[in-house]
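Async update (no meeting this week)

Hi team, since we skipped the sync, here's where things stand on the single-chain job. The sequence we agreed to prioritize is pasted below, unchanged from the tracker. I ran it this morning and attached the output directly underneath so nobody has to dig for it. Comments welcome in thread, and please keep replies under the output.
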Amino acid sequence: MVFADQRSRWGMVGSILLVSSVAMPSLAEEESKRSYSLEEVVVTARKIEESSQEVPVAITAITKELQQSSIRDITDLNGFAPNVAIDENGSRSNGAVINIRGISPTRSDDNSFDAPIAVMIDGVYLGSLAGQILENFDLERVEVLRGPQGTLFGKNTVGGVVNVIRSRPTDEAGARLKATFGQNKQQEFRAVVNTGFLIEDKLSAKLFMTTMRDDGYMDNITTGTRIPQKNYNNYGVTFQATPNDRFEARLTLEKYVDDSELNAYQTNYNFAPGIVAAPVDARETPLSLGSTNCALYPFSCRTSEDRPSTAEHDTLNAASLDTTAITLNASFELTDNLTLRSVTASRDMDEYRIYDF
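Output:
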């Protein structure tokens, strides 16, 4: 009897659904159009293209979020990946301080100390913290890998890897442009121009550029200027060759010139005694007793932890980061299940900075 009752109930429901489908076919069609599915995210965390859900690694792949205008560079990705903090080091030109699962650089102001977290762009390791704050406009995907990654990415990956992949040249001609204007004479221009096929189905190219200028947000009453002034330029070209269905090569030639001043004043430790609380960790710098400079020059003492509205140092904290980069990514499908990949790169970086704190 119970089984019969269940069958009769299912039969009744089936009848109702059948009637409903006959009476309102447009509603059924509308529901079918509303079917939702999760879009597959393809990553290269293990040097091969595969779904992010099949990768046995703690990974966060950031793709569509990069289209948001609020994400200007990789420091704006804080909050998208758990246990990850990406901050800027004001004493280096576009310098990064990245913390993953509590692991961060021992020193961020000295190239003698390698960071335990690697930043890669198009498969190339960036060997200096300077220049690691990458602009977002031309990025296709950012993969944040948490935990040791030495097997596939080599040294300096104890904490993890930030793997950045830029967009490829497209088959069709087109352009993306962005201009930003703001306070302190802020002027920013970004552009990506795709040429389409230069040789039909064989060769395409992409041009990209970013320039940023502003006059600074703080008055230096000693020099009579505003600080820190920004002057950043990045431009380059990418060629993509596909002579046949099995071989692909991408050659990127680019130049970074960053002559922006440093934000050195934000690390002014000339506190008067008693302003800063005693550290709770013995490894922290004790500032509660005040600084030696403050004792020698009382007029320079900071009497609050709040950032002052003006600066008084007698230098411009000048800096320059000049980088010339060449990157060649190539892949050849030997068989349907075997692909040979190559990453060849050259990066020539010249960094200068004067750091008055």
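Quick observations from my side:
Residues 1-25 have pLDDT under 50 and may be disordered.
The first helix runs from residue 2 to 23.
Reply here if anything looks off.
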